[in-house]
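User: Predict the structure for this protein chain, please.
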Amino acid sequence: MQQYYTLDETVHWRTDQQGLPALSRFINSPYDVEARYARKRSTSWVGYKVHLTETCEDDQPHLIALKANRLLPNRHLVDAGYMDAPELVTSQQAYNVELVGPARADYKWQARAALPPF
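Assistant: Here is the predicted structure, written as structure tokens:
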């Protein structure tokens, strides 16, 4: 996949014209084929992205697999990356969990454009 591609059932050498394979299939480490290239803001790395959930309850584990261990909270504090309409609806309907967090800033060009006064 890294060096070759298939076209019409024929294997061809991959050149710059074909580009790289899809990132989900691109192997970044010969030692770990599950490791992926990732970037967040100005930081980039080869490895993994993991979403963790913490609880402050004394009688609960601090890192938990919520649904798998039947430990879903009633209220889940999240960052702005999880505060969007689909997540808000899904968390309530599918899991009966209230998401609480800051609203994401409006990043579209219309929000940044200067509006004339009324």
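Residues 92 and 98 are 6 Å apart (CA to CA).
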